[in-house]
Amino acid sequence: MPETLTEVRLDVWLDVACLFPTRSQAAAACKGGKVDVNGSAASPHKVVRPGDELRVTFAGGRRRTFRVVALSEQHIRRAEARALYEETTPPPSPMELEARRLERLLGPQAPSGRPTGKDRRDRERFKGIRSR
């Protein structure tokens, strides 16, 4: 008969709930101050119980709020893992969605490799180093 859990380590729960890809990434987020449990910063070994409220800051500064509904220490399917929590983050405003869209469009773009000779000549012409 399986034993029902009353508490689980935070880093294990974050990994099992698929909020972070690995337990070590979940632990690093906790150590970095990116995870709060019931309003206070939490370390990876903090225990969570059903009913606890988590605030997690993800990449890009997005903060999401979750309520722990169930516990598990073993990995389960992603669809079943979603049943472990309830997201209570309010939906983003239309203004916030537009700002994210613009940030994606106008953000830094990775160079596409080494510039060609034509790129170099165009850049020199633009800077006024060389005129042709």
Secondary structure layout plus pairing:
Layout: E1 8-9, H1 10-16, H2 23-31, E2 35-37, E3 40-41, E4 47-48, E5 53-57, E6 63-68, H3 78-81, E7 85-87, H4 94-106, H5 117-127
Antiparallel strand pairs: 1-4, 2-3, 2-5, 5-6, 6-7
Helix pairs in contact: 1-2
How would you portray this structure in words?
With about 130 residues, this protein is of the alpha+beta class. The chain has a domain at about 1-90: Roll (Structural Genomics Hypothetical 15.5 Kd Protein In mrcA-pckA Intergenic Region, Chain A). It is built from five helices and seven strands. The chain has helices spanning about 10-15, 25-30, 80, 95-105, 115-125; strands at about 10, 35, 40, 45-50, 55, 65-70, 85. A five-stranded antiparallel sheet has the order 3-2-5-6-7. It has a two-stranded antiparallel sheet with strand order 1-4. A hairpin with a 5-residue loop joins strand 5 and strand 6 (about 65-70). The longest helix is centred in the C-terminal third of the chain and has 13 residues, at about 95-105. It is elongated, with a radius of gyration of 23 Å. The relative contact order is 0.13. The model has no long low-confidence stretch (mean pLDDT about 90).
Brief summary:
With 132 residues, this protein is α+β, with helices and mostly antiparallel strands.
In the CATH scheme, the class of the domain at 1-89 would be Alpha Beta
Strand order of the largest sheet: 3-2-5-6-7
Q: Please, what is the oligomeric state?
A: single chain
Enumerate how many helices there are, as a single number. Answer: 5
Helix-strand category: alpha+beta
CATH homologous superfamily (4th level) name of the domain at 1-89: RNA-binding S4 domain
Order of helices and strands: EHHEEEEEHEHH
Portion in strands: 15-25%
Which regions contain 5 or more consecutive residues with pLDDT less than 50? none
Radius of gyration: 23 Å
The biggest beta sheet is recorded as: 5 strands, antiparallel
